[in-house]
């Protein structure tokens, strides 16, 4: 399970260094094979191989009326690997889709990661907090 947030900086080629605590797990679980895709939330989603296979199977089963959502998730999917120095290349197309330039937040979401432009993430998080806690969350938070 991937949890926590890491503030990272892309290098000049658009590569992100995966933090060691996550890199070791991704190398063990997925042999470094990863898939990046666009999220309608305004970020990117990063999956290890097994988690991507599960997600892809669910998306592939969506009915025809969800064809646009299939296109968002599967059409933008890009396979990548962790390189020898622990970096992952984020394609220019995906960086543009999430408005990512240099400063990013890598957020563990359990089965996958979200990759956010840092300023966008901070703004979205502030809006969530300002809107108040919904009852569904309040019921599980002690």
From TrEMBL:
PROSITE patterns: SPOVT_ABRB
InterPro entries from the UniProt entry: MraZ, MraZ_C, MraZ_dom, MraZ_N, MraZ_sf, SpoVT-AbrB_dom, SpoVT-AbrB_sf
Entry keyword annotation includes Repeat: yes
Molecular-function GO term, any one: transcription cis-regulatory region binding
Residue ranges constituting the SpoVT-AbrB domain according to the UniProt record: 5-51, 77-120
NCBIfam families: division/cell wall cluster transcriptional repressor MraZ
This protein's name: Transcriptional regulator MraZ
């Amino acid at each position: 399970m991937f949890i926590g947030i890491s503030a990272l900086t892309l290098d000049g080629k658009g590569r992100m260094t995966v933090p060691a605590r996550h890199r070791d797990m991704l190398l063990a679980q997925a042999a470094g094979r990863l898939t990046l895709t666009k999220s309608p939330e305004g970020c990117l989603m990063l999956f290890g191989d097994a988690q991507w296979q599960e997600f892809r199977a669910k998306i592939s089963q969506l009915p025809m009326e969800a064809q646009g959502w299939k296109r968002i998730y599967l059409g933008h999917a890009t396979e990548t690997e962790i390189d020898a120095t622990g970096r992952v290349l984020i394609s220019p197309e995906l960086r543009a889709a999430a408005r990512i330039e240099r400063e990013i937040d890598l957020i563990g979401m359990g089965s996958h990661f979200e990759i956010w432009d840092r300023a966008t993430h901070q703004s979205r998080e502030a809006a969530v907090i300002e809107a108040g806690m919904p009852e569904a969350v309040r019921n599980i938070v002690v």
